[in-house]
Hints:
Layout: H1 5-11, E1 17-22, E2 28-31, H2 32-35, E3 41-49, E4 53-61, H3 64-70, E5 87-92, E6 97-101, H4 102-105, E7 115-117, E8 119-120, E9 123-124, E10 131-133, E11 147-153
Parallel strand pairs: 1-11
Antiparallel strand pairs: 1-2, 3-4, 4-8, 5-6, 5-11, 7-10, 8-9
Amino acid sequence: MSQSFAAARTTAGQAAELVLAGDLDNPARLTVPDLLGWPQHRAEVAFECATSGIQYHRFTGPLLHDVLMDAGPVFDPARRKDRLRFLIAVRGTDGHHALLSWAEIDPDFGRAPVLLAVTLDDTGLDLAGPQLVLPQDRCGARYISGIEAIHVDGGYRAWG
Length: 160
């Protein structure tokens, strides 16, 4: 069952919010409670942190792909594989940011199980905000805590 963006807009403001913006038919402001409306996935991860060594954690949350698909990325159906030109920029409240390609999370291509985590080691992230989790990454640099914005950009054009 997918989340209703209309319902999400009415619950925002009670906890940390993330803004979904960019080339989307249904931009939204979402909280951790809103993200519970999507199917939840669990990831047990180990990643290397430059400041504190190897970290082991458990996360739960919806797939980034599911949430973004419900936001309606404006793919051009007349252009074959148009979604491959889309980029996803994620920014945390601390200024940390990461960039992903749509192909990484698309089930027809990379199928990476990237999460918007709502729990960390069974503790809710309602006040801190969701965390970007990339179970396939060995390095923790793209794990973004306290996500405040996700921007989907289809403006990239091929050379020539």
